[in-house]
Give the backbone structure.
Amino acid sequence: MNEFVKIEDREAVPASANARKVFVKTYGCQMNVYDSQRMADALGADGYVETASPDDADMVLLNTCHIREKAAEKVYSELGRLRKLRDMRRADGREMLIGVAGCVAQAEGEEIIRRAPVVDFVIGPQTYHRLPQVVSRARGGDKVVETDYAIEDKFEKLPERDEKQVRARGVTAFLTVQEGCDKFCTFCVVPYTRGAEVSRPVSQIVAEARRLAEAGVREVTLLGQNVNAWHGEGPDGGEWGLGRLLRELAEIDGLDRLRYTTSHPRDMDDDLIEAHRDLGALMPYLHLPVQSGSDRILKAMNRKHTADDYRRLVDRIRAARPDIALSGDFIVGFPGETDADFEDTMRLIRDVGYAQTFSFKYSPRPGTPGADMGDQVAEDVKSARLLSLQALLDQQQAAFMNGLCGRTLPVLLEKPGREPGQLVGRSPWLQPVVCDENVGKIGDIVDVRISKVSANSLIADNREVEQTA
Ligand code: 5AD
Ligand code: SF4
């Protein structure tokens, strides 16, 4: 999944004085961000309101990530800090319930309570609709571990999204359409923590997208670990793929921008590529991880395509939508990776040219085939490769950003900026754009001229402003 895009802490909906408060902390991918919101909604129906700090929380819920080792270790250190906070609250005669959700919860289950007895409940991603019952048992003093793969549909059982909450969260939203993965790349825990691939039905997705639009959302990002493998029965009785779904969503009034993530190269079908050609609402940005540019390593990773298959695919996508920017994920130091394999990855990166990327040292995940492969790469070799890979990727990102300087871009205004008098929006290619507040109001899409580029954002001047929506 498109991971570890910096997740900004969500703004909590203001708490009323005597309601019970929950602080939800999210690690990892956007699907966890979406799940955290849905859990907050489910707890809201149970009388909890969100708070922005653990200090005044009656419940702290960590929504965790297991994709790499450090991610799980961070959770255990956070639990150590929370134990101290809970003990301080207890000394003041107050309680604090501590829950662990997400992929570490699914993978480690009871082990979490053994290693961190401060935890009251552990809940896996397939069972979030049971959260209110789990919390009520935990409040009664039970230690609860709920990590079944539930047979019932979690999305059907979760309460509908509350319009007030959606409004408070802003003009962009995530919408999970597919969850789980059947691909079994040999480095990846996702098929074990999120289970088999499940697609939500068209009717559910369209209804949720409409509710989001009615609550003022202008941009929706469809989420799935393998989002382009999404398929479902349409209202016409036929089998729909993601391209058809995007065409349907583009018809919804108010939804002016659509995105989807994360895609697998093998699931980019013709209809989806043509949707990029046909739909103005579909933003010209695609996260299409390739992981490695070496055929030998791609095979060992079980990616089921070659580096040239990927190059050809990128050519087809660019032919359909010439202004599309690509982002990707790369792993260095997969077992058996030689200098020559690594050079193949560097060559692929030079050939493709990325606007943004995420790159990682291989981290053996227990239970995955990669962890048991011989020929693990030494840590210092991984570090050196990551450094040179990131230097190249940083150069490409800077070149892409600099290329936007002087251009006029449509920007969706999202929130106030850091300085008074500023608003921050997003370009079609996802960069934050700092604008003068007189360009429009939050939720507007305005044309602004980019006059400066900083490391991670674009700065607009306020001349030649023209309202486009
Ligand atoms: N080690 C390093 N990186 C990993 N990823 C997934 N599993 C591992 C692992 N075991 C990376 C991949 C994936 C992204 C979400 O995280 O690049 O696309
Ligand atoms: Fe993991 Fe591969 Fe599935 Fe992506 S496609 S979630 S990397 S197993």
Q: What stands out?
A: Residues 1, 181, 183-185, 188, 190-191, 225-226, 264 surround iron/sulfur cluster (ligand 2) (CB under 6 Å). The CA atoms of residues 326 and 354 lie 5 Å apart. The first helix runs from residue 30 to 44. The mean pLDDT is 91.
